[in-house]
Amino acid sequence: MEHTPMPEPLRRAVNQMVYEAVERCQEVMSYAASDVARDWKRMTLYRATDAADTMDSVAMLIAAYCEQTGMAPETLNGYLQLRQQHSRADGPHEKDRAHLAGLFGQAEPAGAGEPGAVRMLYGSGQRQAEEAQQPEDRPEVLFTMACLHGLRAKLCDDLGSLDRFPPEVAAMARRVADALEVPETATA
User: Fold this and answer.
1) Overall average pLDDT of the 24-51 stretch
2) CA angle 103-105-110, nearest 5°?
3) CA 21, CA 37: separation in Å to the nearest integer?
4) Which burial class, exposed, middle or buried, applies to 139 when counting CB atoms under 10 A from its CB (0-12, 13-18, 19+)?
5) Which pTM was predicted?
6) 113 vs 117, residue with greater confidence
7) pLDDT digit string, tens, across residues 124-141
């Protein structure tokens, strides 16, 4: 099997698209802040689906390259994990409802007792709810949130926006923002 680096034009495009997806994810987190009551449903869904669409575009761009360079269709389909895909147009599935029930400590939905994705996602929701009670036990989550919020606050010159986040996230995000230098724009 040949191991070659990603071609530079593709790498640059992928980096830009991933940046855009991360920016949308950060917006989801901002709209999910505890003091943002107005429009959180609409805006979190918009930004989450924007991020998902962008990452789907990343996958398809890389897939097109793989296809163009001769990757076997069955290998490509395996890498794309086609069995995991489902359309948003179909709306939430039973496994999504099971995940939500687990998050909210509700009864396990009928059929969730069967082996498979529904039962697994119900348990995953329960674990996420437990972990959310003790975010300080998840330093990688706090660090990621602080980096994203600190970066956005610095780039938008809005350190005051950090006040709406939990104190441990806000403090760490301020340290991140303080450590960053905003790049100067090139003048032509």
Assistant:
1) 85
2) 95
3) 23
4) exposed
5) 0.72
6) 117
7) 889 888 877 665 567 887
Return d(Cα 84, Cα 69) in angstroms, integer: 25
Chain centre distance of CA 57: 15
Q: How many helices (H) and strands (E) does the chain have?
A: 7, 0
Work out the pLDDT band at 147, boundaries 50, 70, 90: confident
How buried is 10 (Cβ within 10 angstroms: 0-12 exposed, 13-18 middle, 19+ buried)? middle
Among 7-11, 39-43, 128-132, the range with the most confident prediction by mean pLDDT is: 7-11
Burial of 99-110, coded b for 16+ CB within 10 Å and e otherwise, reads bebbbeeeeebe
Residues 121 and 98 sit within 8 Å (Cβ to Cβ):
yes
Distance between CA 156 and CA 118 in Å, rounded? Answer: 41
Q: CB 150: neighbour CB atoms within 10 A?
A: 23
End-to-end alpha carbon distance in the chain: 45
